[in-house]
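Working notes for the structural subgroup meeting. M.R. asked for a predicted model of this chain before we commit to crystallization trials. I am recording the input and output together here so anyone reviewing the notebook later can reproduce the run.

Input as submitted:
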Amino acid sequence: MIPRVNARTSTPHDPLSEALGRDVPIEGGLPEHAVITYWPGLDSYTDGEQATWTAAQWAEHLEDPLLENPFVTGPCGDRRAIFHLDVRLHPNDRDLAAAEWAEAAHRLARAAGIETPGDTGGCHWIAVQAKPGRLDVIANLIRLDSSWQQQPADLARRLSHEARRIERDLHLTAPAPHAATRPVPTASAQLAEVLAQLADEDASPLATVRGLVEHTAHRIARQAGPAGPDTAHRLELIAYRLHGIQQDLDATAAHLATAPRPRTAAPAPPAARTSARRSP
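Returned structure, recorded in token form:
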């Protein structure tokens, strides 16, 4: 059982499409038992509105906290709140029953920090089992109490450790030691990702602020009175400067991502030995 944490996104549609193997939205209900389990508060949260949901409705449910909390950002100041974990069984493993998949999903959700027993203000998350030998856990890290869910600093280690425990409990095959290893990103690459998130046109806090400023400028421009056009113009200039900052951040991120690794100085060649000549 190999857990893999995918890059966070600002919308659940791509992770859900990947889990299902087809694009969202999908009309009609999902394949039977595709969503095998979900966060414990969902039943009381929906108050039994309907028995089955379409893929588009599940996507909307996962996206709700982003729409309801437009100013909540993560530790790096970004709005990429959709967490996506996929887990794959060994090719020689048996088919798991739905209850076994559900048990594995809840255990991995707790290891990932998106489910805490007794926490009534936690994350929206679902577990999808639509492909053979694969489980996808998709969550929104914006909690019901409008805070950002903090995940463990050693997330990869915790998930790997829990996967080994699940393998033992369900008598599954452990992967080869090298199967779960992944290259460690450089410090420059990590910083480049942070700057790229800040510059993102769709999900960054800067983009959110710029959109609000532009919207306010348009509304003020339509108001009667001499102060309206002047104030609207000033707001448009502010939005223009914010856009310039986003472009500068994006260019800096690209520079960091392509920066060559520092070279270590090559050791100096050993000094040539000179043999002492004897006088004739």
